Input
Amino acid sequence: MIIGQGIDAQVISDVTRLAERRPEFIDVVLTPAEREVFDVRKGKHQMEFLAGRFSIKEAYSKAIGTGIGSEAHWHDMEVLPNEAGQPVMVKHPKQDEAVAHISISHTGDTVHSSVILESLASLHQPVSERRPSWLEISAEALAHNVAYVRDLTETNRFFAVVKANAYGHGLPQIVTAAKRAGVDGFAVATIDEGVWLRQFGVKLPILILGVTPATYVADLAKYDLIPVVASETWLDDALSQLNSEATLTVSVAVDTGMGRIGIRDRAELERVVAKLNAADNVVFQGIGMHFATADGNDTVYFEKQLAKWHELTDELDLPADIWRHLANSGTSLWHEQPSTDAVRVGAAMYGFDASQGALPNRELQPVLSLKAELVHVKQVPAGTSISYGATYTTTEPEWIGTVPVGYADGYPRALQGMDVLLPDGRRAELVGRIAMDQFMIRLPEEMPVGTVVTLIGQVGDEEITLVDLANKMDTIPYEIATGLSPRLPRHLVK
Output
């Protein structure tokens, strides 16, 4: 859905004269990063660059309907060239809500620009913005978790794992918060997630953790994504299809016992390394593995995998500046680090315990809360059945509140009997079956429509966690978090 569109035109010679009369005008319009690009250009190319940025920012301000001012200041927008030299809006006031598609063209002495703002919500399924149920994503908690893991691991690079819609937390919100927290890169599962990040304006390194078909090697190079080389066959296919003028950055996957993807044979690994070192248009950036039992209290298999890693990789002819990335959340939290080059952190960044209490507590803060307002409150007499199947029947008069969340939102039917938290921290039991879009709770007394209840999160000293829901369903918190429907709006809060 298009939520804004703006166009603008500027005469380059007019902008040039203005800059000559008032040199400070250049720094008014350009951000420090844009100024760096401006300074390396010469003559008319400088002024074309300045006029283009002046025009595109004017167009953006028209797209949001405010003009240049408090809601869209010059430095709130930043347009930089991508790897192909094309202008990309990497920062803008509406980046949590929309993708900015931009165009800058020159005809003689005139620069023409266009901005189209496409709602992020429209890229997926409809988001229920007018329904009083939502997720709150804490930027402060995420920043705490990033800093905590950095200190614990003493890592040189922190890669934020944001696959599966950032573990259900919302890609736009988490990417925005993670960039503020100072992460060094991102990790995703698929090429499409990586492309989305680039279109969102991410310029940091992006690892793809799953295997990408070699047929997409041109897109991998175009968007500067780092795929895994999981076999010699994949590498041969990719190199055969890679344009000689393109550059591909890769990371090698080693299978030490996860049994998922990666090279298991030393001889094959040596051949892959030799081919990568010999390729002129390939950057051999990383090599990594994945521990299968890092979040358990039995370390036997962990040590077996680590020994296999050394057996496969020791004394390989690796680039001096290669990134060795072995540590996932479990390894980062509970093991001596096999490498401080880089860690790949998902669960710990989001603040939930991957071990589900099996290992010592770590000082992580939950990033996600799920809240809703009561949309209906009524008193029912004894003998009243509630919801499908009449699985709950009152034995005395009771106050019943309806919560607009259901299994279509990722709150499964198996959570019948779970509690929610009232505004004062008291617990209210979920009664009757959970329906597709709503469920009912038993209230201690009459409460007004609009009362906020917390399904996941903390109120005072009481807390309901993802682990609590996972334990109720005999599953893991990952499954609960990633199952939260995109139709629930995600709000980034402090």
Notes: Residues 168 and 482 are 4 Å apart (CA to CA). The chain is about 30% helix and 25% strand. The two ends are 28 Å apart (CA to CA).
